[in-house]
Write a structure and sequence with these properties.
Layout: E1 5-6, E2 17-22, E3 26-34, E4 37-41, E5 48-50, E6 55-60
Length: 71
């Protein structure tokens, strides 16, 4: 089962962390959605950049597993 959601079906909630498909081909990870726009973050700088390409699908980023403290 695919977790990808078409932007035609629905959009993420504000400030959701998402992975994106650009033109149904290229994947971008760890993006965010706010103010009706998608943004990506480059680790080399501290600013978010608006994604200008056509986003066709998105998927909410799963939560990270809890750290194993018994270990």
């Amino acid at each position: 089962m695919s977790n990808w959601i078409s932007v035609k079906d629905r959009l993420p909630e504000d400030l959701d962390n998402v992975d994106l498909l650009i033109n149904a081909k290229r994947r971008l990870t760890d993006c965010t959605y706010t103010d009706d726009r998608f943004y990506t973050h480059q680790f080399k700088d501290e600013f978010w950049t608006e994604i200008k390409n056509e986003v066709t699908h998105w998927m909410k980023v799963p939560e990270l597993p809890k750290a194993d403290t018994e270990g």
